[in-house]
Design a protein that fits this description.
Order of helices and strands: EHEEHEEHH
Number of domains: 1
Oligomer: single chain
């Protein structure tokens, strides 16, 4: 059951940002049922380069996985903006870099 205190994030948003980061392998997105696997380019073992995401509901990813990916791959600002715009959700104060 999804946590009622944190909003879910649209899978299309996550997928778009994972594609634009430029680190995915060729054909680096594999979907099986409600699980999506992103495969990062490189020579390490496949289990070290694979990121699995399971949808809570069709097209929805849990907040924790979305923020983890955003922190790891550098699109946290875009995620926070998306949450505020699309989910009307903002926690705490954001620091604006000058």
């Amino acid at each position: 059951m999804p946590d009622t205190f944190y909003p879910s994030v649209d899978m299309d948003f996550i997928e778009t940002h994972m594609k634009t980061m430029g680190k995915l392998a060729k054909d680096g997105i594999v979907k099986v049922g409600t699980t999506t696997t992103f495969i990062i380019e490189g020579t390490q073992a496949i289990y070290k380069r694979s990121i699995l995401i399971r949808e809570l509901e069709p097209g929805q990813v849990c907040f924790e996985q979305a923020t983890g990916l955003a922190a790891r791959f550098g699109f946290m600002g875009a995620l926070l903006e998306w949450l505020e715009t699309n989910q009307n959700w903002k926690e705490g104060a954001y620091i604006v870099a000058e």
